[in-house]
Write a structure and sequence with these properties.
It is globular and about 90 Å long. It is an alpha+beta fold. The strands form six sheets. The chain has an eight-stranded mixed sheet with strand order 6-5-9-3-2-12-15-14, covered by helices on one side. A five-stranded mixed sheet has the order 17-18-19-21-20, with helices on one face. The protein has a four-stranded antiparallel sheet with strand order 10-11-16-13, with no helix packed on it. Helix content is about 35%, strand content about 15%. Aminopeptidase which catalyzes the hydrolysis of amino acid residues from the N-terminus of peptide or protein substrates. InterPro entries: Aminopeptidase_N-like_N_sf, AOPep, ARM-type_fold, M1_LTA-4_hydro/amino_C_sf, Peptidase_M1_C, Peptidase_M1_dom, Peptidase_M4/M1_CTD_sf. It is found in: Nucleus, Nucleolus.
Length: about 800
């Protein structure tokens, strides 16, 4: 055995032995069954052993022996020896129901295949179960370990393939052709809570292991990688929702980010459904037998398997009412400052068709895009979202240059989606919450997800505990993109960004007060960041902690660090560097020091002062609480004009609240200024600090700003005021928020219960009863703990 991982109850194990063998390409061929709530079919994995690849530099090796071989017992099917014949006569879906081969040599008992029916799944992780002999020790067979849970695996077989050609179009055709080849021998396999383990008798090294295998499997209705639900129009749908277990309950895969692969997938569904997926092509349905259609997508840029995304539903595509010739020109190739964005020299990533080396792609301000939503939200999408897509994409290009991905789909997902947005290659999910109110929340969230195309996807974290490399960058860039999308003057942009910094500062202070110190650290593994075991397995600290989904520390501390660095360099210098960094590291995985070292090398000495990688690690990334440089900066700064105007409005409302019910006739009415959405959020946060607000004041507040019609960020603070002051007339606003804005409502459940007010607790329990069956699993778990 290789390494005793010893994960805590809330750590996520990454079991794949990526140090020995890597998946180069996945070919999925699946059918969607809404009645049974499963995906069913095959996946073909094409491998390359690591001794033919360059080892990742800087990784440390750890070794230890396991205490038990119990997890490595195998079924022993009779091997088949099917000669490779004309592949056109073999379907990848033919006959897998005829096999009854399960993980421990038993017959298939529909759900007892050894990977979830044991108490360890619920109570924690038994370390001896996660240690398998995956290397070559004497006469033992090589063991392939894949990340896998909540799947029924029926059969694993070798696929007889020859070498894959280098040319990409040829290569993908070849992968598709080979994936249809008949099997040439069943392989031994076993499953445990977190992995699928496969070996071939007599194959003692990774080099001897088959170059391609086919796995026949199905997902399970309760699988944690996908959500089966109904959309806002009441029609069935399914989508991947950024689960803590990533995609291992959708298909067996190598989850560690170092396992960069390409993929292609064919998904069959009833002809009335639309299949959206991470893919470079804007797929159209191919009609199959009566009432069925298939959709085919592919990706040629190697990506971690965790970034694969799918959504199947009765989505309607939104079309712009008018498409001007200027818009079409932007999609083709506008060239504002072409030379700034050209990638000089050869890219540093593994070979793939790279847009940074394509002159027409480097000047493409607006990539082709489609917008989808449930039928009942078409009007809201047409009015709020669709007009923002072009300006936000163009703004992103003006800041960072070449779009890493050739096209984009945007989907408004069901109400139970647990966040405001999620970015994956070629597709963005947005919550319905961004469609209500003015376009501010929709625009900022769209900009945030667009930023992930560069930071989080094209450039990924080599160690998933360094989330700030994705979320900190996206949070910092969303403000810059949004200011450019609105075409704000420099002073206006500065004012809005300073106001946003005020709000995030308040939020960060709340976060460090309310969450454990160990979860506030941006680089928790410190000097061991990026290290894996000898086999490549590792654990993600707190990866399964349900509260982690709702934390914003990595967003906020990362944002403030980047803001601090940008201020030190000056915006022009900083963003010129950022473009250079993107050109250098796109298509690669990085650690914090890769970014910081390159940044410091590009800072003139007079601006560097006391900055060093070590100091930044110490002050910002490896300590809990508020970083000292940030504390110092916030104490010294002056309020921006937008925040000062909010302060003046707060004083007016305090005066209104102090007035007696019966006022003198001559007393003048207060005149309130019109406020921007972020100003409204700050106003309500200040008013939340007041000990009491009377019902008359709250009623006037709601009427003055039409609070029930504002965006979700404003309405969230309004609901907090309602709860704090037990303003019963507006409890309907709280109930509506908990049901329609599930991505943001978790905190409110806690407020309703902490009050110990019987009526408020009744509101919380009633809303939970109405939504719990559809609610995201992590959200439901956290709320249930609050309520019961």
């Amino acid at each position: 055995m290789d390494v005793k991982l010893e994960p805590s109850w809330d750590d996520l194990p990454l079991m794949a032995n990526t140090s020995h063998i890597l998946v180069k390409h996945y070919v999925l061929d699946l059918d969607v069954d809404f009645e049974s709530q499963i995906f069913e079919g095959t996946i073909v994995l094409f491998f390359e052993s690591r001794n033919r690849l360059e080892k990742q530099s800087g990784s440390t090796k750890e070794t230890c022996r396991s205490e038990s071989n119990e997890a490595c017992r195998f079924s022993t099917p009779e091997p088949c020896h099917s000669p490779v014949t004309d592949t056109r006569t073999s379907s990848s879906k033919t006959g897998y129901n005829d096999f009854a081969i399960c993980g421990k040599g038993e017959k298939d008992t529909s759900g007892k295949d050894g990977n979830h029916d044991n108490p360890e799944q619920a109570s924690g992780i038994s370390s001896s179960k996660y240690c398998c002999d995956t290397g070559n020790h004497g006469s033992e067979d090589f063991l392939l370990v894949l990340d896998c849970c909540d799947l029924s695996v029926f059969k694993v077989e070798e696929v007889d393939v020859a070498a894959v050609p280098d040319r990409w179009r040829e290569q993908f055709d070849y992968y598709a052709h080979c994936s249809q080849a008949p099997g040439c021998g069943e392989l031994l396999f076993d499953t445990d809570t977190w992995s699928l383990q496969i070996r071939k008798t007599g194959a003692q090294t990774a080099t001897d292991f088959p170059h391609a295998i086919r796995i026949w499997y199905s997902t399970k209705p309760q699988g944690r990688s996908v959500t089966w639900t109904s959309d806002q129009s009441g029609r069935p749908c399914v989508y991947t929702m950024g689960s803590p277990v990533n995609n291992r309950a959708l298909f067996p895969c190598q989850e560690p980010p170092v396992a960069m692969s390409t993929w292609q997938a064919t998904v069959g569904a009833a002809a009335s459904f639309v299949v959206l997926m991470s893919g470079e092509n804007s797929a159209k349905p191919t009609q199959l037998r009566e009432g069925r259609a298939s959709w085919h997508y592919y990706v040629t840029m190697p990506m971690p398997a965790s970034t694969f995304t799918i959504a199947v539903g009765s989505w309607a595509e939104m079309k712009p009412e008018i498409c001007s010739s200027e818009d079409l020109a932007a999609e083709r190739s506008l060239t504002p400052s072409e030379a700034d964005f050209r990638c000089v020299g050869i890219c540093g990533h593994m070979e793939y068709p790279c847009r940074f080396q394509n002159p027409s792609a480097t000047t493409q301000e607006v990539i082709p895009h489609r917008v989808f939503a449930p039928v009942c939200l078409q009007g809201a999408c047409q009015e709020t979202l669709l007009p923002l897509v072009r300006p936000c994409l163009s703004a992103a290009h003006s800041v960072l240059g070449t779009h890493p991905f050739s096209r984009l789909d945007i989907l408004i997902v069901p109400a139970n989606f647990p966040s405001l947005g999620m970015a994956s290659p070629h597709i963005i999910f947005l919550s319905q919450s961004v469609l209500i109110g003015m376009n501010h929340l929709c625009g900022t969230r769209l900009c945030h997800e667009i930023a992930h195309a560069w930071f989080g996807l094209a450039i990924g974290a080599r160690d998933w505990t360094e989330e700030w490399l994705s979320e900190g960058f996206a949070t910092h860039l969303e403000d810059v993109f949004w200011a450019k999308a609105q075409q704000l003057a420099p002073h206006e942009a500065w004012e809005q960004q300073e106001l946003k910094a005020d709000l995030r500062w308040r939020c960060l202070q709340d976060e460090v007060r309310n969450y454990p110190e160990e979860m506030q650290v941006l680089r928790p593994n410190k000097e061991k960041t990026g290290h894996v075991s000898d086999s490549g397995s590792s654990v993600i600290k707190h990866g399964l902690n349900p509260e982690k989904v709702f934390m914003q520390v990595h967003y906020l501390k990362g944002y403030f660090l980047l803001r601090f660095l940008a201020q030190r360099l000056g915006d022009d210098t900083y963003f010129a560097f950022l473009r250079k960094f993107v050109h250098t590291f796109h298509g690669q995985l990085i650690l914090s020091q890769d970014f910081l070292q390159m940044l410091l090398e590009n800072i003139p000495e007079e601006k560097r002062l006391d900055l060093s990688v070590e100091n930044i690690f110490r002050d910002w990334l490896e300590s809990s609480g508020i970083p000292q440089p940030l504390q110092t900066e916030r104490q010294a700064r002056a309020e921006c004009g937008l925040a000062r105007r909010v302060g003046a409005e707060v004083h007016k409302w305090i005066r209104v609240n102090r007035r007696p019910h019966k006022r003198k006739r001559r007393e003048t009415e207060e005149v309130f200024e019109k406020l921007l959405p972020d100003q409204l959020v700050l106003l309500l946060e200040h008013l939340l600090e007041q000990k009491t607000l009377n019902p008359r004041t709250l009623q006037s507040l709601k009427r003055t700003y039409q609070l029930s019609q504002q965006d979700a960020e404003v309405r969230h603070r309004w609901c907090e005021l309602i709860v704090k002051h037990k303003y019963t007339k507006a409890y309907k606003d709280v109930e509506r928020f908990l049901q329609e804005d599930q991505a943001m409502g978790i905190y409110l459940y806690g407020e309703l219960m902490v009050s110990e007010d019987a009526r408020q607790q009744q509101v919380a329990r009633r809303c939970f009863e109405l939504t719990k069956e559809q609610m995201d699993r992590s959200s439901a778990q956290v709320v249930a703990e609050m309520l019961f």
